[in-house]
Every structure is written in C-alpha cells, then in structure tokens.
Amino acid sequence: MKYPFFRKEIPLLIGLTLFFASCNTNSSSQHQAIETAISTVAKAHVPDKRIAIFEIGAEPNNDGYILKGSTNLPEALKALQLELEKHQISYVDSVEVLPSQALEGNIHGVIKVSVANLRGRPAHSAEMVTQAIMGTPVKIFQKNKSWYRIQTPDHYLGWVDSGGVALMDKSQFEDWQGSDKLIYTKTFGNSFEKADRTSQVVSDLVFGNILQLNGEQGDFFEATYADGKKAYISKAEAAPYQDWKTQLPFSNEALVATSKKMLGVPYLWGGTSAKGVDCSGFTKTVFFMNGMIIPRDASQQVHEGVLVDADGDFSKLLPGDLLFFGRKATDSTLEKATHVGMWIGNNEFIHAAGDVHISSMEQNAEHFDEFNHNRYLKTKRLLNQKDEGILYLTERKVF
C-alpha cells in the first residue's frame, strides 16, 4: 500500500528539487554578478583605497538586493547602479553618500593639536596610517562614537579622535581660511600663555604647525588655535605664513638644509612629523617645509615628477632628488617601491630607517648602505616639477 504513494510523490519531489536548485542557481548567479559589478566599478573609480571611500556590499531581500555601505564618490555609485540595471538586477539603494548627514553640516575641520595620529579604524589600538599636523585643513566624512573619518589635503584618509580636530561648518571654515596665519619653523618648541618663556606652556609645537595670527607683543607673536585657545610664540621660532611663502627659494640647497634639521628623529610607522617619521613621512615633511605637498607613501611618491635614473648612475642626481628602493619587476611581479630617501650630494642620501640618518652609495664609504644599494629602483625629481600629485603652497590656497 505504501509503494503507490511513493511513486505518486516522486515526480513532485523531483519538481521541487529542480525548482529550488534553479532558484539557488539564479541567486548564486545574481550574487556573483553583483560582486563582479562592485569589483569592476571599484577598480575603475577607486584604484587606491588610501585616498577614496567605496565600501559597498549587497544583501538579498524578497525583491532582490539591498545595497549597503558608504562612498565619497557619487559618480562611482552611479556607475554601479548602471551596471546592476544592465544585468537586470533589482536593488534598493541604501548606500550613504559621504559626508554623512549625521555630521549636521560640520563637514570641515582643522587639526588642533601639534600632531594628530590618524588610524586605519576608529580605535586607538588600530594601525596608525599617517599623521596630520596642527593647522591642517581636513574634510570630515563620517563619525563613529568619538572618532571622525577625515581626508587631508594630499587626499589621504584616516580616523582621528575628537581631541585632535576642531569641527567647523562652511562659514566657520571660511573664516578660518580667510584669517592671517603663522607657521612654526623650528623643529620642536612650545607656545606660552604670556609673551614670556617663563609663563605656563599652552602646548608643544613642531615643524610646520600653523595657527591664526592675531598680532605681536615684543618678541612674540600672538596666536589662536583652531579650537579658540590663545597663545604666544617666539618670533625667533615662527613666521607670518604669507611672508614665509614669498621667501621660499624652491632650491636644492634648501631641501638639503631642511632634511638635516631632522637628523636623529626616530623612525615611526605612519609618522609624518618631527615627533617621528617613516621613510615617506620624512620626505613629505621636508618638501612641505619647502612649500610643496607631495603624496603620502613611497609607492605614491614614485609616480610623481620626472625620471632621473633607473640604472644606478648616481652622477645624474641632484640634491633633493628622491631615490626609491624595493622590489624589482620580474616576469610575474610588478616593481614595488617600499622605501624612499633623498639625495644630498657626495654620493650620499638621507632617509628614515631606525632614525633619520645619512647613508652612502659609495662602496668604500664607512656608512655605505649595501642593503638599499642592492634594492635600488630609480630616482625621481619632484622639485619645481608640475604634476597632478604635487601641490605648491604658493599656487593654491590650502591654509
């Protein structure tokens, strides 16, 4: 009696199995199509995740998919939508286009401490990806508890805690940018409550810190921080920003002189200040103090300027040229720059490795750097070159 029952149900079970297999196949195929579309758009619009946000995923729902995540590139989101429509994939767009509405218009900011550490995630335990020094104007994209995701003038992204940045709306930021500025030109120092070195310290200061200039009192400048604090800074250690800019020589000799002021500064992964530098943070700081903002990392700096040498002919180099080191290209791998130093002449270059020090390319020299000599890739000249990734403070209003 049970046998006919099973015979009757077998076609139904097979039908159901085929139906669900078909659904799963279609679902899997669509999911793969979405993943491919996201990857394709990201590759086209976001070749470098260090300088752009495109963090989008898709979740299935009853009517298709929900796009979730965030991006600061509306054109990339539009390209993704077109890709999905081309493949006839139904979706609901829940992607947040940054800056976040939760910021309530406070989408501008200025770094308010001598050196702010920027993290890869909104946590002090996260990797420090870079630093931003006092006075740096930043874009604010997101908030996560007491952390803000910001972008510096070189387009680098990172998370900073609320103690490091003064938030501003458009009007406040324009007022700040329109005010007279002061730049700190000594490697290290302090500001004071009064025009007197024996008075209370307000904060520490480092190379390149920028504050609002309010006036003068004797041998001191009167300055204001981005968060409104007042302080006095010795005239021997600072200069009005506009005066400093007009006196920039943009010379090889000036780059070398600046670099030697940082001798002995300790190596710090992610560091871009006189408190600690990594290799590219060192070259970036040297060029900044000579009126140029260059990209953050060695792998980015290597794409700027003009090629001087790629064969180890150091007679072609001039002081201020950047030497790049790393992995040479092979049949199966691309060249990869992982270290950078600056040529100072006399077969010597200065770089941050352990600390900022001078090494030689001369094999008989006491300070010959055999390790870097053997992984030398090329030399680029950035000084006085016009390139997309090189920003001149004399040509663009940054501060």
Write the layout of secondary structure elements.
Elements: H1 2-45, E1 54-61, E2 64-71, H2 74-86, E3 91-97, E4 108-111, E5 115-119, E6 128-133, E7 137-144, E8 147-151, E9 157-161, E10 165-168, H3 170-178, E11 181-184, E12 188-192, E13 201-206, E14 210-217, E15 220-224, E16 230-234, E17 238-240, H4 241-246, H5 252-260, E18 272-273, E19 276-277, H6 279-288, E20 292-293, H7 298-301, E21 306-309, E22 322-327, E23 336-345, E24 348-353, E25 355-360, H8 370-374, E26 376-381, E27 391-392
Parallel strand pairs: 2-3
Antiparallel strand pairs: 1-2, 4-7, 4-10, 5-6, 7-8, 8-9, 11-14, 11-17, 12-13, 14-15, 15-16, 18-19, 20-27, 21-26, 22-23, 22-26, 23-24, 24-25
- Please give the order of strands in the largest beta sheet: 21-26-22-23-24-25
Structural class: alpha+beta
Name the CATH superfamily assignment of the largest domain. endopeptidase domain like (from Nostoc punctiforme)
Rg (C-alpha, Å): 27 Å
CATH topology of the largest domain: endopeptidase fold (from Nostoc punctiforme)
Distance between the termini: 90 Å
Helix content: 25-40%
Q: Give a count of the beta strands, DSSP E runs of length 2 or more.
A: 27
Indicate the low-confidence ranges by residue numbers.
1-23
The CATH level-2 architecture of the largest domain is identified as Alpha-Beta Complex
Shape: flat
Q: Quickly name the level 1 CATH class of the largest domain.
A: Alpha Beta
Q: Give the number of domains.
A: 4
Specify the biggest β-sheet: 6 strands, antiparallel
**β-sheet strand percentage:** 35-45%
Q: What's the mean pLDDT score?
A: 93
Number of helices: 8
